[in-house]
Design brief:
The protein is of the alpha/beta class. It is 24% helix and 38% strand. The protein has a five-stranded mixed β-sheet. A five-stranded mixed β-sheet has the order 11-10-9-12-13, with helices on both faces. Strands 5-7-6 form a three-stranded antiparallel β-sheet. Helix 1 packs parallel to helix 3 and helix 5 packs parallel to helix 6. The model has no long low-confidence stretch (mean pLDDT 90).
Amino acid sequence: MEKLNLLFTQDGLQYQMVRGKSVQDEQSYFVKEESPADFISRKLEMALDKKHSEIFVVSALNRFTLMPEGFSEHEMGYDLIAFNSPVNKNEEELMLSVNKKYGVQFYYTFPKKWYEMLKSRELPVKFNFSGEKFLNSISPKGGKEIHINLYHQQCEFIALENKKVILYNNLDINSEVDFLYFIMFSISKIGFGIKETRFFVYGETSENETFISELRKFVRHLKMIHDNQPKKNFILK
């Protein structure tokens, strides 16, 4: 039986049906101005109607907070997230993803309506936050590093110093130039110099060529890790 992979971004849903190591089907849906209010819910229903034995969900929604591993006052999760983005406890499920490799954990929220749709199928469902999955996918060398994962009109980035997490952020902005501004502004605040910092880029690199070309103008060390080619690098395998 096939496994269903789902990626929720700020304006879209991507899914992939996998049998063993072979991708059977892969689709991307993004909200447009003319899209109905329940556009993502409809596309999720379509994906769930396909035959599968388990579901793996990754949320890249920009509603999260980062804490040290071991923080156990889970009841504060909603309030901590609220420092970064508005939270509606009645409509959002509080979730937790732990990354033991780097000693951090993410609290994040996921829309209850989608959570209930997924759980109602009575199949094994695993949830994760994109930041935790991104951390697991990288192989830092040491020193000061910025790892950037690009999505459709969205990006997330991790700042590491000597293999320790200094900063994580997740931005949903329409302009690629704004991606660049926020990343450069952030690294200036944490004292990462342009000449000494190495940059690594992943994800939808073909779709974000303007961002990459502008980044090259400012940084000395830039390496493209991979592009999300169809049926290959979906959700940072």
